[in-house]
Amino acid sequence: MLSYKLEPFLEQLEVVSAAASKEYSLEKAMDRMEEEWDSIVFNTTLYRDTGDLIQDPLQIVKYFQQFVCITPKTANSASERSERS
């Protein structure tokens, strides 16, 4: 960097480098997420006699159980931690 006389721009280069590093990390995380989701299939079913497709209700329940619900023990321990703070 010294031979290119970039010392005056060192601070700006650090900012750009940090932003580029974060962007690269996000890209890698998105790539991993895309690979994980590649095998997931969303099943659809007809809604009554409307001809409209909806996501399979059983699949919605499974998703809710896996990713949204928290156990009472987890909720209690989280509230206890917040009360101690």
The portion of residues assigned to helices is 55-70%
The rounded distance between the terminal residues' Cα atoms is: 48 Å
Spatial strand arrangement across the major sheet: 1-2
- Major beta sheet summary: 2 strands, antiparallel
Low confidence ranges: none
Q: Class by helix and strand content? A: mainly alpha
Average pLDDT number: 80
Number of DSSP E strands: 2
Number of helices: 3
Please indicate the count of domains.
2
Output the helix-strand order.
HEEHH
Give the oligomeric state.
Answer: single chain
Give a written overview of the molecule:
The protein is mainly alpha-helical and 85 residues long. It folds into two domains: 9-40; 42-85, no CATH class. The protein has helices at residues 10-38, 57-68, 72-84, and strands spanning 44-47, 52-55. A two-stranded antiparallel ribbon has the order 1-2. A hairpin with a 4-residue loop joins β1 (44-47) and β2 (52-55). The longest helix is centred in the N-terminal third of the chain and has 29 residues, at 10-38. The mean pLDDT is 80.
